[in-house]
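agent: user wants the structure for Exported chitinase from Microbacterium keratanolyticum. delegating to structure tool.
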Amino acid sequence: MSVRTGRHPGKRLSPLRVLIGVAVVLAVTGAAIVVPWQLSRTAPITTAGAGPHWFGGYFDVTAAPVSEQPNASDASDTVVLAFIVAQSDMSCVPTWGGAYGLRQAGSELDLDRRVDQMRRDGTHVAVSFGGAINTELASACASVPDLMKAYSAVLDRYDITAIDLDLEGENLADTVAAERRADAVAALQQQREAAGGRLDVWVTLPVATDGLTDEGLQAVRTLLRGGVDLAGVNVMTMNYGTDLNRRSLADVSIEALEATHDQLADIYAELRIGLPAEGAWAVLGATPMIGQNDIASEVFTIDDARELNAFARKAKLARLSMWSLNRDRQCGTNYPDLSVVSDACSGVDQAGLSFAGVLANGFDGERLESDDPAPTPFTPVPDDPATSPYPIWSPETSYSAGVRVVWHGYVYSAKWWVTGGPQPDDPIATADQTSWVLVGPVMPDDEPFALPTLPAGTYPEWSETQAFEKGARVMFEGVGYRAKWWTLGDLPSDGITDRDRSPWALIDEE
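agent: tool returned. relaying tokens verbatim.
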């Protein structure tokens, strides 16, 4: 018998208290049907269904600027947004990487708008919970109802119908959290099914050359015994940290997959859960870390991607992914040490190819099936400074990289410093030529752009004829500004959009 470990060791609720808690959560979230979470314990899955063969790259939300938008052109019909984690070890509040709350990500990263645009581009969006660092929600939330509420906050905000549970390190070792997670996820699946929807669930686990670790095997058992209808088990074919005997990462990964296949076949037989006709391959996925891995001697090349893809197609693997879409480009000449992992490039020669394109070969014809909501038909909102979430684009204004504007009912983000030039929605400018990236449409519930105002007299009024030293503070049209260097005659308001060359910065940006 395993020893229970976790941040809430031994904390179990009585059946009555749990039922009451679930009912309260469902009332808060507006769910129409109450499904007690314990029912999953007495109604295990008896047959695993075979899903489509799909490819979906992970996209590190907090490592990407707003101007970087994954879409179907990345050869990825599915994008897995990573990672949702708890706000802190003991806080049952979902965040992106511990850095942005859901609302904060909507404003600072424009994530809600970007998700909407991904769907308009034909991309299915899934969300991954967990990851290698920070605390997965199941370890931070003290009860199943609390955990269900936290998961639901993410699912409902982004209309998610497929999730990925990335369990590593302490999050994988926490056996109390594992049971809590299984109970919550199974209950959410039952709720959605009863309401006519679905929730596809993948679990992503570390793997060794001889297959899943004991903790990984136990994680799969716990989810299945808890009544979770697993779409599959995705193994991280990366960072083995052992002597590979000069074999390629593709060869080692194939060995790991074959071992995992046998382990899964045994687990499903042990739990008397039937497998699809394709066997355990139909519930197995692989995720390599493209290019330079965290282990200096481990490098996953384009040739490795070809070999792994060929094996996956032959074995009819259910899923291929990769870490990450953010890294799927060759490093620039100024990046000196390719053995140091970058979150912005792969560290290998890609020969003009993308890892996503190579790995998706043969998988791109079948996307992850789900009940993804169809994008609402969109009629562009007229550009109105009084209601737009960002300033209206003007050819007379200068914009720094990352500054967002509104033009013809859509939001755009500057890729680099730009002034004048073609308008953001220029129909003939290629992706390489345009200075702008489409973020998404102006939404009906967007809050109007507003500058932070200060009480009159807080600072002296700016004067066109007065010189200001570095650090000087002034008021201009009710807004406070700080001089970044000596200046004379430069309008403070230019600093709103030209953050690089204007000598003025908004006071609240300090």
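agent: one observation worth passing along. The two ends are 55 Å apart (CA to CA).
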